[in-house]
Amino acid sequence: MPIHLCKLLPPRPTFPGDMTPSEAELMQKHTAYWQDLADRGIALVVGPVLDPAGIWGIAIIDAKDADAAAALTSDDPVIAGGGGFRYDIHLVPQAILRTTHQPNPL
């Protein structure tokens, strides 16, 4: 299972605090897109990262290679819709995954 980390960079450092109505619509489509990929087992983890330097998004995906990962991110509505976002994609050559879903005891 080749794992890729996809880092979604927003169109400006002040996003999402000054999100426009059209950007909000794109974000709703973005959420639905990634929820579908998660439901199908392609996306393992997706969500916003509250980095003090600026919020960005993360998607950890199971994609056979860099081209497949790039195809998934380019189909994201925030990219396909020309919202000014961009992805950095990185291969994770080794990943330790839990084998079953169990409650975190911490």
UniProtKB/TrEMBL annotation:
SUPFAM superfamilies: Dimeric alpha+beta barrel. Residues 21-89 form the YCII-related domain. InterPro entries: Dimeric_a/b-barrel, YCII. Belongs to the YciI family. This is YciI family protein. It comes from Microvirga terrae.
